[in-house]
Design brief:
The chain is of the alpha/beta class. It has five domains: 3-118, PriA, 3(prime) DNA-binding domain (GIY-YIG endonuclease, 3-Layer(aba) Sandwich); 127-191, Arc Repressor Mutant, subunit A, CATH 1.10.10; 211-390, 3-Layer(aba) Sandwich (Rossmann fold), CATH 3.40.50; 394-442 and 501-635, P-loop containing nucleotide triphosphate hydrolases (Rossmann fold, 3-Layer(aba) Sandwich); 646-734, Ribosomal protein S10 (Alpha-Beta Plaits), CATH 3.30.70.600. It has a seven-stranded parallel sheet with strand order 14-15-13-16-17-12-18, with helices on both faces. Strands 5-2-1-4-3-6 form a six-stranded mixed sheet. It is globular. Mean pLDDT is 86; it is low at 194-202.
Length: 740
């Protein structure tokens, strides 16, 4: 009797491996890898997924499968990849398997007259609204130029439903309504189909490639199956066109593609370009889709109707038929690292995926991660460089203002004299500007000038941020909100002063400096509702001249030729964090946001304000020589044994009682140290930098090992040897991006 190895959908570390169940004769034709099945586990029924089928098993006391609940949702290769993810990132196998399921969540089961069945996501209505281009109305003034261009580009390949448009570009109902009123598009009702109707896609209009783009394409074409190509190109150098051409060649060979972008809502133009090039072959998978919409897109991919998948991190696990290429755009972005179990990094999983599928991995960025550059230096991937902007566009001029010198000359404003001059110039010329302040709120904290007390969160180890709207004090970790105290809670002094600055205050100060220039603020406070990003960008675009003030999200994918000025209010907010990657993240953020300026014929200028002008991250941006930063950072990391020159595991333990978290951390640290070889160091346990969040105390244990060490095996064995505690949560993070 054949045996099914089943990953139970019970996310417990003690159930990390698959369990063997006999396949009864009546289920032999149905029980295959990827199927959801119902089994007996202990004294209850449980749902699981078949990850392997073998001829026999030595496990005694096996039980038979109770029922097969679904057709296969993944194949043998995906099952092998799930097992690798669970092992590499020290996670329960069930957590890894869920990545490959349509909904990504725990399957629901119900008993019917026909037996046990999975509960399907809610079925959508029988009719749907379809949008199609019906004329050439030209530019519609009432519509954001970028949003209009993205919608029309997406519709160029054929009609789309409003749901498909929203999936591609975010909420666009108001844009569609205005385009319809202007006669540019037509909206009609039709019966819902299982997938989009095939369209006749016009031949794409290809731009002329630069020397760098042609070289990158040649390298990708010559890449062997399972290999990795890094495309390092300055902002505006045409990396997206390289991706599109490479995918076209893969599709011409009959193979599929996956494209990862860091954040769908901030890259509507990029997604629209893929839709206009590949039409009905595109499927978009991301978190804004409902369970039903995600299930429908997943089914289209599984049936082979969609052969090019575009989406955020989770799109990597789509069941693309005969995968030929995986593209990761802006590969340096931290959003490619998952924050919950399994804490995988999409780049590393993609490397394993292309090996298993005999495909090619292409990662691109103007500021590649140190891990990618190290891989190129050691021969594990090919590196292609695009040093110039396409079309001969000039990179913006970059100036650094020393805020210490400004203060010494009597300037107490958050804006240097130079930045004020440039903002006034933007207003006079009718242009646009972007101001980056990587901290939201009005002020970082309140401080009593008599006793030095700083009001903090009662549930987290952090100060409360002052927000003018309200006004309120807010915790940016647990979202707690409290009224601003009239006097110091500690000494009752009335002298509470606001220190630091955030986007809210920057926007207010801009309005004072250039009162006639509209100011749009874009941060987590103003974009928290659905469609928030789109509304803020549309508002910015609706003005002929304006200033966009925001956090680091402004550095991601914005392409506005009318932006001639980028100002960084303070470049120091991320430099002083207790993190080995602080310098790298600062360099990447500055380089990326600087690239938003000068994309039009007017050219552009970047003003970087800082108290640390000699820092290598800032000098590298100003001199346009990344090696100024990379050389110093590379040396520091090598000396300290930090990635990519070593490996780290960060094991975080949380509990409501501080002593319980520490006690369990002590046991884990001691167990790892007892079994670790000489080249492994155990640091701690110690309180985490954020020692308390949401009333839970946090301790962590750091484990450092040499490059290439099987660190996951050591951590998994140690955690398995330590009895679990019901009141303590343990979260291992292998190769973390931060240690907070």
């Amino acid at each position: 009797m054949a045996v099914a190895r089943v990953a139970l959908d019970i996310p417990a570390r003690a159930l990390a491996d698959a369990f063997d169940y006999d396949i009864p004769p009546n289920l032999e034709s149905e029980a295959r890898v990827g199927c959801a099945v119902l089994v007996e586990f202990g004294h209850r029924k449980a749902v699981g997924h078949v990850v392997d089928v073998v001829a026999s098993s030595d496990v005694p006391g096996r039980k038979p499968l109770c029922a097969v609940l679904s057709p296969p949702r993944f194949d043998e290769v995906s099952a092998r990849l799930a097992a690798w993810i669970a092992g590499e990132y020290v996670a329960p196998l069930a957590d890894a398997v869920r990545l490959f399921l349509p909904s990504g969540s725990v399957p629901e089961v119900a008993k019917t007259d026909d037996g046990w069945q999975l509960v399907r996501p809610r079925v959508r209505q029988a009719t749907e609204r379809v949008v199609e281009i019906c004329g050439d109305a030209g530019f519609v003034p009432a519509v954001s130029a970028t949003r209009q261009r993205a919608v029309l580009d997406a519709l160029a390949a054929g009609p789309l439903t409003t749901g498909e448009l929203n999936a591609l570009l975010g909420p666009v109902s108001s844009v569609v309504t205005r385009l319809s009123e202007a006669g540019a598009v037509r909206v009609r009702e039709r019966q819902r189909s299982r997938g989009p109707a095939p369209v006749s896609r016009p031949a794409p209009r290809h731009e002329e490639l630069s020397v760098g783009q042609s070289g990158a394409l040649d390298t990708i074409d010559a890449a062997q199956p399972g290999s990795w190509v890094v495309v390092k190109g300055v902002t505006g150098s045409g990396k997206t066109e390289v991706y599109l051409r490479a995918i076209e060649k893969v599709r011409a060979a009959g193979r599929g593609a996956i494209v990862l972008v860091p954040e769908i809502s901030l890259t509507p133009q990029t997604v629209g370009r893929f839709r206009s090039r590949f039409g009905d072959e595109i499927a978009v998978l991301h978190s804004r889709l409902s369970a039903g919409e995600r299930f429908d897109e997943f089914e289209r991919v599984a049936r082979g109707e969609a052969r090019v998948v575009v989406g955020a991190r989770s799109a990597l696990f789509a069941p693309v038929t005969d995968l030929g290429i995986v593209v990761i755009d802006e590969e340096h972005e931290t959003s490619y690292k998952q924050g919950s179990s399994p804490r995988y990094h999409a780049r590393e999983v993609a490397r394993r995926l292309v090996e298993l599928r005999s495909a090619v991995l292409v990662t691109g960025s103007a500021t590649p991660s140190m891990e990618s550059l190290h891989a190129a230096e050691t021969g594990r991937c090919a590196l292609c460089e695009l040093p110039e902007r396409v079309g001969g566009g000039a990179l913006p001029e970059i100036d650094v203002v020393d805020l210490g010198a400004e203060f010494a000359t009597g300037n107490r404003s958050m804006f240097s004299r130079r930045l004020v001059e440039e903002l006034i110039g933007v207003q006079e010329r009718g242009e646009k500007a972007i101001l980056l302040m990587n901290r939201r709120g009005y002020a970082s904290f309140l401080l009593c000038r008599e006793c030095g007390h700083v009001p903090g969160c009662d549930r987290c180890s952090t100060s409360l941020t002052f927000h003018e709207t309200g006004p309120v004090l807010m915790c940016h970790h647990c979202a707690a909100r409290v009224a601003v105290p009239p006097v110091c809670p500690k000494c009752e002094s009335p002298y509470l002063r606001r220190f630091g600055a955030g986007t809210q205050r920057v926007a207010e100060e801009v309005a004072l400096v250039v009162p006639e220039l509209p100011v749009v603020r874009m941060d987590a406070d103003t974009t928290s509702n659905k469609g928030g990003h789109e509304r803020r960008l549309a508002e910015f675009e609706s003005h002929s001249s304006a200033v966009l003030v925001g956090t680091q999200m402004l550095a991601k994918g914005l392409d506005y030729p009318s932006v001639t000025l980028v100002g960084v209010v303070t470049a120091d907010t991320t430099l002083h964090l207790p993190d080995v990657r602080a310098g790298e993240r600062t360099f990447q953020m500055l380089e990326q946001v600087a690239g938003r300026a000068g994309r039009g014929p007017q050219g552009g200028r970047v003003i970087i304000q800082t108290y640390w002008p000699e820092h290598a991250a800032i000098r590298a941006v100003v001199t346009r020589d990344p090696e100024v930063f990379y050389a110093q950072d590379r040396g520091e990391r090598r000396d300290l044994g930090y990635p990519p020159f070593g490996r780290i595991a960060n094991i975080t333990l949380t509990a409501r009682v501080r002593s319980r978290a520490k006690e369990h951390a002590d046991v884990i640290a001691r167990t790892i140290a007892e079994h670790a070889p000489e080249q492994v160091r155990v640091l701690g346990p110690s309180p985490a930098p954020l020692a308390r969040i949401k009333d839970r105390y946090r301790w962590h244990v750091l484990v450092k090992a040499s490059e290439g060490h099987p660190l996951s095996e050591l951590v998994r064995a140690a955690l398995a040897a330590v009895p679990s505690a019901s009141d303590v949560s343990v979260a291992p993070d292998i190769d973390p991006l931060d240690l907070m």
